[in-house]
Amino acid sequence: MDGQFDLFETPADPPADPGRAPDAPLASRIRPTELSQVAGQEAVVAVLGQLAAAGRLPSLVLWGPPGSGKTTLARILARSDGARFVTVSAVSAGVSDLRRLLGEARQARRRGLRTVLFIDELHRFNKSQQDAILPDLEDGTVTMIGATTENPSFEVNAPLLSRSRVFRLEALTEQEMGKVLDAGLAEIEAELDPAARALLIELARGDARSGLNTLEIAAQLAPPGPIQADQVRAAAQRGHLLYDRDGDQHYDIVSALIKSIRGSDADAAVYWLARMLEAGDEVNFVARRLVILASEDVGLADPEALPLAVAAQQAAHLVGMPEAFHPLAQAAIYLALAPKSNSAKSAYQRAAAAVRESGNLAVPLHLRNAASALMREMGYGHGYAYAHDFEGGRVDQEHLPPELRGRRFYEPTPRDRIPPPVSPRPTGAGDG
After folding, report:
1. What is the pLDDT of residues 103-153, one digit of tens each?
2. How many Å apart are CA 418 and CA 303, to the nearest integer?
3. Domain boundary at 188, 214, 236, which?
4. Which of residues 123, 139, 168 is at a domain's end?
5. Is residue 11 exposed (0-12), middle (13-18) or buried (19+ Cβ within 10 Å)?
6. What is the CATH number of the domain that holds 294?
7. Are 91 and 147 within one domain?
8. pTM of the model
9. Same domain (yes/no): 78, 146
């Protein structure tokens, strides 16, 4: 896991960047070398420029989708800081690799050289790997720049995260992708047909590296003249869905599905469902989300929604993909069009808050289980009104601890389909 710079090179005389060699991929050959050349990310670039100008770069976590410029920014910042730039991939590096690199960084520090340790796919480092960096991070031996496509608050240890500044990068806009492609076209001395350009921007989905790789292959496939849409389509093979079942995109799309159904938008619900299933998401995961939503958001406004969602989950599990979309789409549309009520969820949350506030309140004696003569002598079950002894099988008696007498947790909405309220307790209620 060698660093990019030789251990004893002075930062004033760095070696040539192998990524800019003539036979390197196009995305590497036109990689920006100054912050002013970076496409997009204006707000982040402005702040990073200020940090670089201050003369002491802090540790950073660059969080953003593929091809948004994380590695490019790390290289530029290391160069502006006059530091060694050492890269490590979290996919292949172990703790022993890190310890060796950190040992080299300590030697370099004794010679007056700072080290920027760039960790690609930081989210793939386990706890022991992340902990191994902390001592050298704290004493200034290394400045870490971590790149991740995942939410660092979920994937990066709190001690490491607290010692870093997090910057969120966005996928490039169509206009920004156009500028990147123009730079690539100038490098390979080619032209794009307008239709091919529009298709390439669409297929890239804001990923500069993906767009440039496709452009380079399309140029190799094209006959003399402007590159056509057919060559772009062939180079791309097929459009890919930017979706990681364990990543941030996964949870964003799940959130969109849930909020679309909650908002009674059947069209959006089917769209986000299709995004999940077509990207290969686990059928049971999708079905579980629909079951939860049937109770959480439809709830008592349509009590039939929950058994329908459970039936859809069982059917999807039985048939599997590709046919599983039938019951799941049916359930998603039904839930979206159903009336909504979160009264059951709200009731539970109020009750749970009361439990946390009041602690372990004693069960009233009349509600306790009188399983023995001694218990009955102690008053267990005394005064309990057995509901079936009363008209309609319903009785009005206090079932909460005395400290919570009169508290209301369930607040029905006008949409709730519930039984009529309990009648006042008849006089003469006896023991069960």
Report:
1. 999 999 999 888 999 998 888 888 888 888 888 888 888 999 999 888 888
2. 9
3. 236
4. 168
5. middle
6. 1.20.272.10
7. yes
8. 0.58
9. yes
Token representation of residue 59: 């540790």
User: Do 355 and 421 belong to one domain?
Assistant: yes
Q: Look up the domain containing 378 and give its range.
A: 343-432
Do 259 and 162 belong to one domain?
no
Structure confidence by residue, pLDDT tens digits, 221-251: 888 899 999 999 888 864 455 555 555 566 7
Let me know whether 58 and 147 are in one domain.
yes
C-alpha to C-alpha distance for 197 and 98, rounded to whole angstroms: 43
How many angstroms separate the CA atoms of 5 and 250, rounded?
37
Supply the mean pLDDT for the chain: 84
Residue 299 shares a structural domain with residue 189? no
CATH number of the domain to which 98 belongs: 3.40.50.300
What count of Cα atoms within 13 Å lies in the side-chain half-sphere of residue 252?
A: 11
How many structural domains comprise the chain? 4
Whole-angstrom distance, CA of residue 268 vs CA of residue 34 = 42
3-state secondary structure the chain: CCCCCCCCCCCCCCCCCHHHCCCCCHHHHCCCCCHHHCCCCHHHHHHHHHHHHCCCCCCEEEECCCCCCHHHHHHHHHHHCCCEEEEEECCCCCHHHHHHHHHHHHHHHHCCCCEEEEEECHHHCCHHHHHHHHHHHHCCCEEEEEEECCCHHHHCCHHHHHCCEEEECCCCCHHHHHHHHHHHHHHHCCCECHHHHHHHHHHHCCCHHHHHHHHHHHHHHCCCCCECHHHHHHHHCCCCCCCCCCCHHHHHHHHHHHHHHHCCCHHHHHHHHHHHHHCCCCHHHHHHHHHHHHHHHHHHHCCCHHHHHHHHHHHHHHHCCCCCHHHHHHHHHHHHHCCCCCHHHHHHHHHHHHHHHHCCCCCCHHHCCCCCHHHHHCCCCCCCECHHHCHHHCCCCCCCCHHHCCCCCCCCCCCCCCCCCCCCCCCCCCEC
Together in a domain, 264 and 188: no
What is the distance between the alpha carbons of residues 257 and 182, in angstroms, rounded to a whole number? Answer: 36
Could you tell me the maximum CA-CA distance found in the chain, to the nearest angstrom? Answer: 101
Domain identity same for 227 and 286: no
